[in-house]
Design brief:
- This protein is of the alpha/beta class.
- A 6-stranded parallel sheet has the order 3-2-1-4-5-6, sandwiched between helices.
- About 45% of the residues lie in helices and about 10% in strands.
- The protein is globular.
Length: about 210
């Protein structure tokens, strides 16, 4: 193991609950009651791909997609709170002490990622940040994780991915990386394609130490 690549929402930041509320408010006018699990299963592919999937699933007018996204972002920006998970800093600090490279691979947009990292003061831990702005294919394509490995100049087989959703797990596995899933937003049953499933960041740190 030479590098650890983290997903962002639901892994580095406790934000998926706020994203869900944003979508819920944006879809209210259509009478749609989407469950949190429905959204969390779609996570990783970027906001437009999620909007397209919701539109197909609920037969919404395709021309409404852009306004749904705009409203979702507006509601999310009003309610968002910056939080990270307990013991996350223990993981980041340990990896830095061991000279492991750390990166972020997310379907989110760069501006929001940088703003959030800055609010926590943890941006310096990460040597690479791959967002939906940098790739032509989002998760579950391996492209985002392969690009991160390339920019860090490490073999994909030397990377460990930390994910919380099926599309991200598939992306990391397709890139030839070991994937650890964490049950921050979905239960272990939905994460079974990962190599290892952990309950929290204390468990993650123990698992990483074994791999190291």
């Amino acid at each position: 193991m030479k590098a650890i690549l983290f997903d962002f929402d639901g892994v580095l930041v406790q934000s998926m609950e706020d994203h869900y509320l944003g979508w819920k408010k944006a879809l209210k006018k259509y009478g749609i009651e989407m469950s949190p699990e429905e959204l969390f299963m779609m996570e990783g592919q970027g906001v437009r791909a999620i909007a397209n999937e919701i539109s197909r699933k609920y037969n919404l007018p395709i021309e409404d997609t852009s306004s749904i996204i705009k409203n979702k972002q507006k509601y999310y920006n009003k309610i968002k709170k910056y939080r990270y998970y307990p013991n996350l800093l223990d993981v980041l600090t340990w990896a830095k002490e061991k000279n492991l490279l750390q990166g972020i691979v997310t379907g989110g947009d760069r501006q929001r990622v940088l703003e959030t990292l800055g609010s926590f003061g943890i941006q310096d831990f990460f040597k690479v940040i791959i967002t939906s702005d940098e790739v032509s294919e989002t998760k579950p394509s391996p492209q985002p994780y392969l690009l991160a490995a390339s920019e860090l100049n490490v073999n994909p087989a030397d990377c460990v991915v930390v994910e919380n959703a099926p599309l991200g797990i598939r992306s990391g596995k397709a890139a030839g990386m070991k994937v650890i899933a964490i049950t921050t937003t979905l239960n272990a049953h939905h994460l079974r394609e990962a190599d290892v499933v952990v309950a929290n960041f204390s468990d993650l740190l123990r698992t990483l130490k074994k791999l190291y």
